[in-house]
Structure prediction request, 454 residues.
Amino acid sequence: MRDNGSFWFASLDDSEDIASPEWPEQVDVAIIGGGYTGLWTAYYLQKARPELSIAVFEAEHFGFGASGRNGGWCMGTSHDVEHLLQQPDRQPIGVRLAREMQSTVDEIGRVSASLGIDCHFHKGGNLTVATRSFQLRQFEDEVRHLHKLGFDEADFRLLTPSESCDRVGMTDNFGALYTSHCAVIHPARLAQGLARSVKNAGVNCQPNTRVLGYQSGQVATDRGVVRAGRILRATEGFTETIKGCERQVLPIYSMMISTEPLPNSVWARIGLAGRETFADPRRVVIYGQRTADDRIAFGGRGGYYYGSDIKPIIDSDHPNLDAISETLRSLFPVLRDYKVTHRWGGPLGVHRHWRPTVEFDADTGLGSAGGYVGEGVAASNLAARILTDLVLGEQTPLTDLPWVNDVSRRWEAEPIRFFGTKAVEFLAERGDASEWQRNQPSKVWGRLFDVLTR
Ligand SMILES: Cc1cc2nc3c(=O)[nH]c(=O)nc-3n(C[C@H](O)[C@H](O)[C@H](O)COP(=O)(O)OP(=O)(O)OC[C@H]3O[C@@H](n4cnc5c(N)ncnc54)[C@H](O)[C@@H]3O)c2cc1C
Prediction:
C-alpha cells in the first residue's frame, strides 16, 4: 500500500489492502474513485438495492486521496450555503441545504457506529475565533442574520472573549462564533472502515486499478475493460488525470501537519476540552482539531500547480509546510517546545462555479459528484445520497437540492488558469494582511476575493 504521507494512515491499526478476489467483467454500477464520495455511494446504493452488482475502482488504495488525509472536520455546512443564505430569493433553499448538511453530520456518526467503524467521531462543535476585534462585530451580524432565518442558539451562538478564551487559548482571541454542527473524525479510519464494510456487503472492491477513460457502457482500466450500465465518477481533486475530464475540476492543494501527543499541562493552556474544531476567519483558510490521542492536527491552503499538475504525494519538506507549522505556533506559542511529527498534503477539487455538483444522466448512465472546495468530509455523504436517488430514478427531497445537475463550465486553458488562481491567492493574502493591520474589513482585496470565489 502506497503511503499518502498522512499521520492518519501512519496511525491505522490495520492497513491491509481491501480487495475483492474476482475481477468484475460486467456490473450494473461502476464507481471510479475509492474516497468518501465513491464509498458512500456504493454503501447507499447497495443498501437500497442489494440485487445490484456494484464495483469500485481505486487507482491506489481506498482512502488514498483527500478522504484519507484531510483535517477531519465533519462539518454541518458546505461551501455554497453561506452565499445562498445571503440572497433573499435563494434563502429558503439555502436553509434547506444547511439543515440537510447539519443532519448529515449525525448521519455519518450514526451509520459509522452502526457499521462498527471506530473513526473517533466526536461532535464537539466548531469555533471560529475572532483574532481581530472587528471580526466579532461581523460575527454578531452573522448570528443575527442566521437567527432571523430560523436557526437558534443551539445551532449558532456568539461566545464572549472570556467564554472563547476558556474554550481555546489562542494568542489573539476577541470572542468566537460557535456552531454545534461539527464533529471531528479520524479520516483514514472512516475511509478504510467504509471500504471494508461495503466489500463485506458484496460490493466488488478493486484497489490498484486506474481508470484511463470511460464512455457510456464501458470503463477502460489499466487492468482491462469493464462493461457497466451506470458509471459514476468520484475522483474530485484527481479528475484531471482521466481522459476527457480535463479542466472540469481544479486541483487546489491543502497542507497539514500533526504534533506529537501533548501533555495535560499543554492542554490546560490550549483548552479544546470538548475537542471542538478551530479556525479563524482568514481567507487563506486554516483548520485544526485535537485528535483522540491528544495531538493537534492542523492545516491550511497550499496553492495550485501550473497545468493542474496532480501531485499524489506532497514531500514532507515542502516549504508551505514550514509556513503551516509557523502559523500553528503563532496561534499557540506553547507549541514551540513540541515536535511536529507528520507533514503531508494533497489535492481537493474546485469547480469553475465554486459549488459542489451531483450530476446524473439517465440516458447515458453517466454521473459524478464532487467539487466540495475543501469542505467535503460531510458534503460527500450528502452528495452520495443524492447520487443514489438519481441513479435509482427516485424523486426525493434530496433530488431538488441546488447541487443537482448544477453543471459548471470548464476552467480556462493555461496560462489563464494559472494566473487566475495566483491572482485569487494574492487577493486572499492581501485581504488578510490588510484586515490584520487595520482591524477593519478589507474593502478592496477582500471584496474582490469574495466576488471571484463565488
Ligand atoms: C489536506 C486536506 C485537508 C482537508 N480537510 C478537510 C476537512 O477538514 N473537512 C472537510 O470537510 N474537507 C476537507 N478536505 C476536503 C475533503 O477531504 C474532500 O473534499 C473529500 O475527501 C473528497 O472525497 P472524494 O471521495 O470526492 O475524493 P478523494 O478522497 O480525493 O477520492 C478520490 C479517489 O479517486 C482515486 N482516483 C483518482 N484517479 C483515479 C483513476 N483514474 N482511477 C481510479 N481511481 C482514481 C484517488 O486515488 C482517490 O482515492 C481536505 C482535503 C485535503 C486534501
